[in-house]
Sequence to fold (178 residues):
Amino acid sequence: MSEKIQNQEKEKNINSEKNVPIVQRLASALMGALRDTTDKVNEYKGILSVYVSNPFSYYAESDVVQFRLELDAPINLPKYFSLMVFGAELTVNAIEIKGHHIYFYFEGKSDIEGYKIELDNERVQLMDLALLIYILNNMSYNDYAKFSSYLQTYKENVEQEKNELLKILKDNGIEINN
Fold:
């Protein structure tokens, strides 16, 4: 019986020796997969850090246009984008406009209360542009309607006031060449 136990132990040792290269290969494969995945994350973050021409560039002479919209339907940011850019999974619950600045405010368990995008620059980081477009594309219909209504109201009120002042000036003999 002791010979049988010795044979089993020899067989066990031989199998253990065979497993060592397999374990080393598995460890190497897992570390390679981790490196490849990390490279993809870094590539994604690198792309977001690139500066591109800002198609929405404008400069506001003053901060006349100011409003804050509390979103009826908060917008969850894409998971990996949010983790890479802000270090946490965030949800946008408000948008604020102050001249050529757009602020996004977050809800949740994060130290980050908000984020500002300045649209008066000719070039902007792709991450800011992606964030802006993502949020505007994912607003609920009701939030979109409120946002549009605020802007339309400002536009109409400014136009009306400008026309009234120009009329007063014209009525008082002041000619303006446009």
Q: What stands out?
A: Residues 2-48 form the longest helix (47 residues).
